[in-house]
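stage 2 :: seqdesign
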């Protein structure tokens, strides 16, 4: 059975893309078949999986406007277990185009049915916004992973995110489907200061058992890996952040039952 997980938080720079690519890579190390969907017009996840901008024509955004079908857009990577539905950086008016579609919230959901069973995990890297693109990701998903950066004002904006999740839950209920908060992931913890641990306590008090036991530390190998455009699990497999993402993959599998 495949499971679709959106990695979402409208706050920018909290570690969504880093989590998407490293969770994909770590789950593949455990033998899982992965489809990574890059729904962010920054296209960082696409690039980090080794898919170069000029090497493809259609992107996931053409699927959202129904000008392409997912199976024709999926790209293979060097890792036979990871496929990518790539994003393009030049996307204008995508939200305006989606709004015109009477099936506007369910476009990705409908399209994903064509390939869903080919994968164990479908991971969706969401953009830093709560528009129709993110709604499409959530409607197509079984669960949401919410990365929260262990920094000042970490909880800021989470109410809005939770409201969006509730709205999507109501939409999915009509189809007898559910959307869970699969897990809250604490990211970029600076273990040298107490401020980060205060955020950890605050988030755990609010979300309880939803918080993953794995906490991703702030680690230079992680930002260096981004610079070179590769997952840290490949760039520096023994670094603290790489080991944490591999732990997270095991936790994700155990939560999936
Ligand atoms: N554990 C970490 N240690 C150090 N740097 C990190 C870590 N995780 C992410 N970063 C860095 O933080 C920056 C933001 O991360 P990332 O791009 O994953 O966030 P995002 O939520 O996807 O951002 P956006 O909202 O712009 O899409 C990147 O430069 C990344 O390299
Ligand atoms: Mg991102």
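stage 2 :: out
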């Amino acid at each position: 059975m495949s499971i679709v997980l959106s990695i979402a938080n409208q706050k920018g720079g909290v570690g969504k893309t880093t989590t998407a690519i490293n969770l994909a890579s770590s789950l593949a190390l455990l033998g899982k078949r992965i489809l990574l969907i890059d729904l962010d017009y920054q296209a960082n996840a696409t690039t980090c999986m080794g898919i170069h901008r000029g090497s493809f024509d259609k992107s996931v955004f053409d699927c959202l406007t129904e000008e392409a079908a997912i199976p024709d857009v999926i790209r293979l990577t060097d890792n036979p277990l990871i496929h990518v539905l790539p994003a393009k950086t030049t996307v204008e008016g995508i939200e305006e185009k989606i709004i015109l579609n009477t099936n506007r919230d369910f476009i990705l959901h409908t399209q994903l049915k064509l390939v869903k069973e080919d994968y164990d995990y479908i991971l969706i890297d969401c953009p830093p916004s709560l528009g129709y693109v993110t709604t499409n990701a959530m409607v197509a998903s079984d669960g949401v992973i919410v990365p929260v950066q262990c920094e000042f004002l970490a909880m800021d904006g989470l109410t809005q995110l939770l409201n969006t999740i509730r709205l999507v839950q109501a939409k999915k209920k009509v189809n007898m489907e559910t959307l869970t908060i699969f897990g809250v992931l604490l990211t970029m913890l600076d273990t040298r200061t107490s401020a980060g641990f205060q955020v950890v306590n605050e988030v755990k008090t609010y979300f309880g058992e939803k918080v993953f036991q794995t906490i991703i530390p702030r680690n230079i190998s992680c930002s260096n890996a981004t610079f070179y455009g590769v997952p840290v699990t490949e760039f520096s497999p023994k670094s603290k952040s790489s080991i944490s993402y591999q732990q997270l993959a095991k936790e994700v599998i155990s939560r999936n039952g």
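stage 3 :: structure notes
- Residues 133 and 141 are 13 Å apart (CA to CA).
- The radius of gyration is 17 Å.
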